[in-house]
Structures
1.
Amino acid sequence: MDALNHLFQTLANLVRFEKGQQQESFLVLLLFVLSLGIFGAAMCETALPMTVLAISFVVLLVLSAVLVWREHRLAFLPLVLLFLVLGAFRYETAAKLPANDISSFARQEVHVTGRLSEEPRYTEDSDGQIKIRYSIDVTSVRAGGGEAQAASGGCYIYSRPVEGRAIPDVAIGDVVEASGKVRLPHGYQNPGQLDTELLLRVQGITASMAVGKRGVKVTSELRPTFAMRFHRQIAAIREHYAASMMEVMPQRDAAAIFAMLFGGYDGIDPALLVQFTTTGIVHILSVSGSHISLLAAVLAWLGSFLRLPRLVTAAGVIFAITIYTFLAGCVPPVLRSAIMGGLTFFALALGRERDARRLLLVASIGMLLVWPLLLFHISFQLSFLATAGLLYLAPRLQAWFVDHRVPRLLSGSFALTISAQGATLPVIAYYFNQLSLSCLLANLIVVPIVELMIVFGLFAGLVGWLIAPIGKVVFVLDSLLLGLVRELTRVLAALPGSMIWVPTPGGAACIAYYAGLGALLQSEERKKAELAFLVARRKPVGAVFVAVLVFLAAAHLAKPNEMAVHFIDVGQGDAALIVTPHGHAFLVDTGGTRDGAYDIGARVDVPYLLHVGVHKVDAIFLSHAHEDHAAGAGSILLNLPVQHVFTSSEGRDAYAKSMRMSTADKALAKFTALQTGDRYTIDGVTVEVVHAPAAVDETEADGNEACDVVRVRYGKASFLFTGDMTKEQEAQLLAADADVAATALKVGHHGSDTSSSEPFLRAVAPRYGVISVGYDNSYGHPKQTILDRLASLGIETLRTDEQGAIVFHTDGERMRVETYAQTHRNVATRK
């Protein structure tokens, strides 16, 4: 440590940082430029030449060594550039997959062999069907009936149990085989949405297969290695805990307490999950990320409060983190968080606050060098920022509370909570657009109870092996405490303003925010010096401030009155958001899944609306009751104020069924069936009902015949939404001489050949055709014949499966279009 400190000190002195903060500031600079190099390489449209990067790295390394040896005053410059190049180099090496990776067999039917890397995961969909997910490290692949060839990469295999057939008994390390079609990971490509492909890539998963009821076959059981035996023993311990809890408490209680002990959300009561999220304590259900940091911080603070010897406190912190890491399965995200939290809070517990901050920076630099893709992972972002907040902000806040005579017990809890929330606010705002105002009370009242539950739960499982009745009694006590936690969080979540909407921050806003936090951390002497500097130059500073205000005001006034039409990527479904020039919002369809296994409304639509600043909806227009068009509306109605819902003629019961709502739900009172010729004007934007057919006999139709067609107009710009309208309906419209002309067409039925006849396309004569479709869907949409037809008619085609969210902006005369996948290129894989 002393040698490392001496090296950092020498380098930092060359950078001429303020005395006492040289090492820390120098490490912050290195972390920043390393991250900048990773980010810059990711944003490049093409891969950077590795030879150029390697030569640049060697030259800068030699130059840095020479200048440092000579103690030259410019030695820091090549060193900073070195880390910039190193970041780009590491990104390029990490992002490129090997030639034999399982992802290279995408869309092929293959027979794959691999070793199970984690215990099978069992989930249940809304219809009660069990789904099994196996995670394997691929060793070989046989494609097209040929010979097996060596392969690599992680793969998820999804299977369903067959009635009357036993589910294979597998353990970590077993060799398994399966046959199916290889699919690439692909999430919903919308702003503010978590990047599924990237998250899986960081975990080493590059492909998936759905084998259905064919299942997997265990071909051999290798002699287990020490690592395999270790993982199997951890899995056995977790199974023991789960089985013991299920014996003495309701299933939903067991799921919640198991999550508190080991992390995860499987089987948790959705209402409890919402309450935890609203009160800002959902981190309790994750053993990785900020939870480890907060747990370590609480233990370190508790040791200080109880005046325990520093070495005892440090040992307790490391022991707690180690136990949690083992029981959570030692998966990579938990290991990374344990390293970060363990190193920093070990030093903190020993009273070496400055060393703790330096260790955090060193650990973060090391992690980005080993796993550069972590920079884009929300877990890493929250872990680093929460830990930094606890190390940099919490001591200042606690001292401020103590100076203002806040009791020491409360000051510590308040300081920890505010610091973690404050440091992560921009990231939380970007991804979730929500901020919990009840988190202070929840952390003060609820979290201590939860921590007690965790201690009781761990104790109960251990004692249960020796004296089963005592373990059961303690688990029952845990269940009772959970009831108290459930009631407390329900009350806190119901408080007015408990959860507020936060606008999505831009890059400038984030820089200003963290610059402000940095200013708060300056020493009093530094603050006084900076204030004196500003006062001495108040005239030029004031002029710059006024100029900035004038510029912002002029930019706002010069902004044209535009309507925005967002085609949201909801997979195999339709959903479009229209935002009027003055911020009114309405939706045309909302997407959804037919099996209800994934709540598109809650997990795609609502986050998208909040991300673009929509927190109330004037109206929802639903073309028909099929789930892939209407199911998402249910969660929108639950989470946001909605004034009206306009439907086709199928009846409210059909929509209630699609949304999985009770037919007695009060929200159905907002539903009104449309009629042909209806017109609605909102803020200068007109919605015309072009076609609203009468209800048809469900036994003689598939539901698409009842599809409404609406057109949205603003000035000379217009958008025609056809839902799943069939060719027969298109012919009826043309025969009735209906006006269907539009600037942009939402292509019917996801590009199926049951829609988009050539006469209809010629009548619409759109400039753009938008296809809302799921990536690599099983229906084969869009059909090539439709794509060829659109191209032959000169219609520019845009697809949500390829380009993600598609947004049109128009002032009624001119129109421009943005696509999310092009402006926010996926950084997970170089292709």
2.
Amino acid sequence: MNSKCTSLILTLVMLLMSSVVVAQSFTLKGRVTDEDGNALEFATVACAKQAKVTMTDLKGEFNMKLQSADSVEIRFSMVGYKTRTRVLRNPRTTQTLQIQMSPMQELSEVVITERRRQTTQMQEIDAKELKATPSASGNAVEELIQQQAGVSTHNELSSQYNVRGGSFDENSVYINNIEVYRPLLIRSGQQEGLSVINPDMVEKIGFSSGGFSAKYGDKMSSALDITYKRPKAFEATAMASLLGGSAYVGMSNKKFSMSHGLRYKTNRYLLGSLETTGEYRPNQLDYQSYITYKPNKRWSLDLLGNISENHYNFKPHDRETSFGTMQSTKSFKVYFDGQEKDIFRTLFGAASITRHISDSLSIKLLWSAFHTKEQEAYDIQGQYWLNDAQSAEQLGVGTYAEHARNYLTANVQSLKLMVNRKLKRHEIEGGLVVKWEHLKEQSREYEMRDSSGYSIPHTGNRLDLIYTLSSKNDMRSTRIEGYVQDVFRWHNGDNFFTLNYGVRFANWSFNKETLVSPRASLALVPAYNPDITYRLATGIYYQAPFYKEFRDTTAVGSITKVTLNKHIKSQRSFQIIGAMDYRFKMKDLPYKFSAEVYYKALSNLVPYNIQNVKTTYYGENLCSGYAAGLDLKLYGEFVPGTDSWISLSLMRTQQKMNGQWIPMPTDQRYALNLHFTDYFPGTTRWKMTLKLAYADGLPFGAPHRGITNQSFRAPAYKRADIGMSYLAYQPSESETKKYSIKRVWLGIDCLNLFGISNVNSYYWVTDVTNRQWAVPNYLTGRQINGKIIVEL
């Protein structure tokens, strides 16, 4: 009996102990939102005393197991929001919390340094500094992109940029899920004018320098994803400067919102600093409108429209350039006759209707149309002298004449169906696009050179032009594109994973080519340090030809004939990228360090030459190649309440043509960029922004000789711009209701602070010994720009 009683007592004791152990653990779950009730993804939920950390999912929900105690402290945090703490008293079984987080307030504005952790290859770039940044081109968004790691430019007048060895044409741009196009005949930064992106209307900027997801189109290098804002109340901004002006107005109610942006730009003042003097009369006008209507929570209608007209009128007078070394200095002088008149007129419209079947399922239908009509016309003659500046010896005397009558009309229409489904751990998205393209081109160009008494090329018995081109083409085609992708997020213990995988396909009626492009990226936030994110991405990317790539410019001697190559294939890039992000604080200020290493195996390449910003393709798949490099970036609040960063990029890119390895035209071996913002001591009314760029020069060679003879390299591109802004007026809280003006900013920018003469391209001159000299064409000099910004 005693033994039976003892066994019974022991069994009861063990049951009691096990029930106590079970009672000591509990499940904590809930949801984290912002002040508007929107789910906050990747918010950190932590119990420091128990070393337990988790993050919210796509719906802002979380779930974690903890040990019970008299009090359990839970901390909710996210960069850009005030940290919240909840203390649970003797928690048992299951506890549910609903947490609402408020944004930080700094300097009377919402300052958000990073809204969400980057777990894909698309990084979010803050748009709040666009107005204060000094700008020569007026294209603030593109200039911000040009300062990112892996991105480069060598022309402050241009909105175009190279990404990790790719050409200008390898970068896709989206506005509100619609791919946008740019003028095609542009050959210099002076002609470009305003880009399609209006910085006053931008809410979010997403940018990927490689390894981007399947939803983004058939480009090899980068994806820029712009989201225009829907104003929540009346707002307006007006800006005027020596380089142009802009106006923006937005308004809304519960169902309807609209915003309008008008921009005007003239480079006349800035172009006056070029070495070629003359009458510069460029002007660009751009109007955009974005309208949304939501009759109820299930339906929404969006309309987007853009009208842009760019005129570039130029009558050159003369030019004098000195170049060479201290021991051998040359003087080049030209007197001009003639003029250039260019017109680039573009129209863009889009409409979308969205049906929200439920909170987690939506279907969207988008229609868009793009039209461009471009005219490039010039007849310019120059009489030049090339002398040795030290001995006054005359090396070359001659005349050249350039003529062009280029006309292009392009129409692109597209119809796109998108489906988005959000589950607890998955975000599935798919799309199907049909595009109809019609391009009509008529071009006629020639160039004559008469150097030291004879025409080049010199045959002795006939007069030839050094270059002629004739083209007349009319092309219609249809493209069918589609994609499906999934963003899958899950926990494994306290490790947090994000997998973005998908596939893209495309078919083009012109060359009957069908493409399949699988892509995937994986991110890990390890349990041992939630401030670290590891990323790995890979995929196959195609550069689908569009006009310039399949325009076969076959040269026989000095005569170039243009045909459309129906056997052209899409260029291909296999990419693999490894990356790490580390978030940390120093002196209680947030910072983020990012590092990415990448390798791109390139095939079916269509070789090309670059002159200024004009890319001329061979029109045939002749090369293979590679690009490899390392991108580093340190981003943070170097000064409280401001955003600054420094980036360093190292790269090597080559292509193999006719068995010979040669640098790509965009082989920029290094690039260093600094963006620094600060306030004057003792006041927040004075604000300073400094931009520094130091980038390796690009390969170049004599014209009409092919890329295998690009044996020279231009000097490094070095530039410093500084801008200062003064908050001249801001009403107090008591005055806010009386006056509609919110702020008045006065600004002054010094562009090219150190007056560095950067080389843009070269003009080649032949002397009496048939030796060619590369005469540099320099970019803009030091200029002062004043501006005033009024916010309503």
3.
Amino acid sequence: LKDLEFVKSPTTVISSLGKPVTLQCKLNGKGSEDVESPDVIWLKDGVPLEHAENNQYQVLTGSNSRTIISTLRIEKVQLPDMGYYKCAVLSGSNETFSDEGGIQLEGLPHFSLEPYHMTVVANVSFSLHCAAHGPPEPVRVIWLQDGHPLNSLSDPVALSPSTLNLTGLNRTSTFSCEAQNRKGVASSRSGTITVLPNKPQDVRAVEITQSALHLSWEPGFGGIYQIVNCSVQAKHSGESIIAGPHQLIHNQTVSMPRSSHIIKDLEPHTLYAVRVACHSSQGPSDWSPWVELRTKEGVPENPPANVTAKLNGTEVLVMWEEPPGKLNGQLQGYMVEYSTPATQQVVVNTGLGTEFAINLSVPLSNVSFRVCAYTGAGQGPWAPIQTLTLNVPEMGEFRGPSSPPAFSWHWFYVVMAITGAVSIAVFLAVYVAKLRRKETRFGCYTQYFSPRGQVSACNSRKEARMNSLGISDELKQKLQDVMVDRHKLTLGKTLGEGEFGSVMEGLLTQEEFVLKVAVKTMKIAICTRSEMEDFLREAACMKEFDHPNVMRLLGVCLQTVESEGYPSPVVILPYMKHGDLHSYLLYSRLGDCPVYLPSQMLVKFMTDIARGMEYLSNKNFIHRDLAARNCMLNENMNVCVADFGLSKKIYNGDYYRQGRISKMPVKWIAIESLADRVYTTKSDVWSFGVTMWEIATRGQTPYPGVENSEIYDYLRQGNRLKQPPDCLDSIYSLMFSCWLLSPKDRPSFESLRCELEKALEDLPDPQDPDEILYVNMDESSMELGAVGGRDPTGRSSPLCLKGLESVTTVEVHHPNRYVLCPQHETNRTLSDSMESLDMPVSSSTATLPLQSSCHSTPNRTPTVELLEDRNGSKKMPWQ
């Protein structure tokens, strides 16, 4: 064909996803009927389309002319089909192209540029970019920081592509953008901007000695994150460390707040280069520039070499060579010390010369001499003393270096015998003291070593019991302080019961008093020696815990159970008056009379748990089951971390069973632990964040509406717990940092504790305690009296009302209930309140006046709280 020309080109088609699209082009040419038509090729964005559904046909328009029509059809158009299209034909060596058309899809915006993870330096400006496209256009973008919008659609920055310019961050944040057109809204992926500290400044030497450099520096600003430690590196000046860290002569981490460090064991008079980088919980800063420092001069390492002497008339010529090895400075000269029968110990400075003539008054007199070199730091070691004996005028005879006096073996044996005797006596004294201390613990009577070798009956019973278990001797030794005789423990009523065990009241008889305790019994049988050793080894570890916010193990009993091969373990713990934290929070919100817990109390609960977990993490102990239900409240409203180690199998219904192996608290477990069952301190940090959320929501279940089996996928998609309505921004920021995807990016418990303590200090003073009307209820004695008063027997009044004119006696049938009187409530009697709680009132009960069971003065709103009080006195919750 000749004179090829496109008379119709593809047009621009605007469609929607999944709809059919058709493009067409038309080509005219001249030629006879027997000439074969050329193929029309379709190109998308300049690239030929392969396997395209191309329908081509020709129409004869005259004797020697024809029209070729090619149609491209896409049955269900998709996003990859968007672009520019045109037709082309090849005729010999000629190419003919149509004009371009295109396919555009209307729908939700799609992103070509999204935020990504990056690190920035605290308070240093940077920019983020986001681009989204239609059609339909225009597309506008809203930026979000940690889920909170930063701009509105009417702002100039909202038009895509959008650039967000930030003057700096002082905390790690997550940024994303939402793109909107008239078809709807689409969300981009999230990018975490990690805030790192500025590099240290003013790296300098405070003091320089021959073998040490005392450095100091100013740590850079780390935003809201405290500088945890700094790394100090040193190398020989001029050497590169590109080949690897083996070029470093010093690489050490220094804990803050100390911002100084001493580099020791250096060589004198040597040039070194040092640098510093500091770390926060978010990561390390950049290194400071290398600073070159030179150590001070030292003395020569060795004495002068090849010291010789010869007689020359009445003179003795002493000669030597420069000291071998390191001079440790700049050589200043040599010192010669000599003596003769007529002259005693003359010291002469010879300068840099290597020979010296000693003038003798008597030619045949003897002479002793020695030589040393010196630098600016002082004299080096002396060469051995040499003596020139002049018996013959022509010959000088050397006497070798003077020998030290012979070693006396007699005194060596005496000293060794005395040392051995003292060591044996000290060992016996320590051993007897420890034995006496062990024998008198937990109520065991004492019968010390007698001449016949008898031991206490207490130790005999313990030893017999442990021998029957078949455990190792090493573990037996550790358990001497842990095991408690079963007959010293009296069990009381059951406080709670779960799937794997129960908790009971108990009394532990000690030397001169009886201690109220909580006793945990396990329903799971221990069937093998290995399981028993694991259980007892955990007990020995827990016995060493000593922190006010960590539940301390008092001891372990082993009681025999019929039909079981091994005894059943009984764990003895301190009695916690107010039970677990989750129940306390739940009752404050969902009890019969709800009460609002102040923010000070909630933040204090979080701070107590952070202190306890910091202690455990410093002990290299991983909790693996941190949650509000596993934290206990004592009589002073202090929180203790509990249910670790021995209690890790006592779970409740908040667990998702994974296979047949174990139950897992999936809503509290870190995402990496869900994936591969690896637990670290940073996985405990994740659980602590969830526990903070429980406290902030006053006992709500995490991830409401999400099934346990869906949690892992939910977290993988980037979802996290939302900020509670009345939660402080600073507290939620701490929670969110606990749920960062990478464990190394999460804060340490030390950092969390510091931030929570600061938040607690910044909160205003709590409500005046005088405005709180507090009622304690005890099942044994129910006399009414003034707040803080005592009954005639001397015990604290179990029920205290302020502002009431008459008193009554109440019989309590629900001792574990939390009853909180509604605020602003008047014209009710105490008996009405009891009936609303299903708490029967005895027949001898007197009705209180109708003014109010929650009496208040004008402009004051008191609160009545009925709490179980087994020990008598009661304090305000924030005390």
